[in-house]
UniProtKB/TrEMBL annotation:
It comes from the Eukaryota. InterPro entries: Expan_Lol_pI, Expansin/allergen_DPBB_dom, Expansin_CBD, Expansin_CBD_sf, RlpA-like_DPBB, RlpA-like_sf. Residues 1-24 form the signal peptide. GO terms for cellular component: extracellular region. It holds the Pfam family DPBB_1. This is Expansin-like.
Length: 256
């Protein structure tokens, strides 16, 4: 019996250690160490030509606190995701950092983020510290995924200017809320609810070369890393006579 006690203690310690390591591996609120730069040739806000396909809207989204991402871009699935990013130099950097939205794809000097100049400066404690950060150009950071929030704003559908009614439809989904990714989109006829799975052309741009006729409903599949999936159906439809360049309010928010 004396032999069993140390063995039992060893098994308990081993179990607790494995549980702790497992929790750390799946921690959704933990920070990841990395580096960040900023757009060197931009104004205070982001770029209007980001690879997510947001256009000029992508430069001003979230007040201009936006970023390009490298691996986190994930072939466009990462577009619209929000991250808390904070630099780690305690002399210059605040504890809060800045919340940015991914609107572009890119990397520089082994970075995960290329922030807008505005967002990069907002990681600092003071205006003086912000000037020093800008002078550094590239800084060590830590980041984590956070929920996107746009109070009072519904998800909107922006029809791409290159769409050609009624033969070709492309659109971008704006104001993606919550902490999940949009991993699939269906376009449904509202009269008989026959749905067609759309292609992700690039970034956040969804397309079809033969859109259904009549008023259209855009169904969005929100997914997370744990495999939880939720289909969201808007209250409002895209009108039958949709027009390139137009924006339509879905009537719903996605606080998932």
């Amino acid at each position: 019996m004396a032999f069993s006690h140390p063995s039992l203690l060893f098994l308990i310690v081993t179990f607790l250690l494995m549980q702790t390591l497992g929790d750390a591996a799946t921690c959704s609120t933990c920070f990841t160490q990395s580096r960040a730069a900023y757009y060197p040739n931009s104004d205070e806000q982001g770029t209007e030509t980001g690879r997510c396909g947001y256009g000029p809207f992508g430069a001003t989204l979230n007040g201009g606190d936006v970023s390009a991402a490298s691996d986190l871009y994930r072939d466009g699935v990462g577009c619209g995701a929000c991250y808390q990013v904070r630099c780690t130099n305690s002399y210059y950097c605040s504890d809060k950092g800045v919340m940015v939205v991914v609107t572009d794809h890119g990397s520089s000097h082994q970075t995960d983020f290329i922030l807008s100049r505005r967002a990069f400066a907002r990681m600092a404690q003071t205006t003086y510290a912000a000037t020093s950060l800008i002078a550094l150009g590239v800084v060590d950071i830590e980041y984590r995924r956070v929920s996107c929030s746009y109070p009072g704003q519904n998800i909107t559908i922006k029809i791409d200017e290159n769409s050609n009614y009624p033969h070709y439809l492309a659109f971008v989904i704006r104001y993606q809320q919550g902490k999940k990714d949009i991993t699939a989109v269906q376009l449904c006829e509202t009269h008989n609810f026959v749905c067609k799975l759309l292609d992700r052309s690039y970034g956040a741009v969804w397309t079809t070369s033969s859109p259904p006729s009549g008023p259209l409903s855009v169904r969005m599949l929100f997914s997370d890393d744990d495999g939880d999936e939720t289909w969201l159906t808007p209250v409002n439809n895209i009108p039958e006579d949709w027009k390139p360049g137009s924006t339509y309010d879905s009537g719903v928010q996605a606080n998932l």
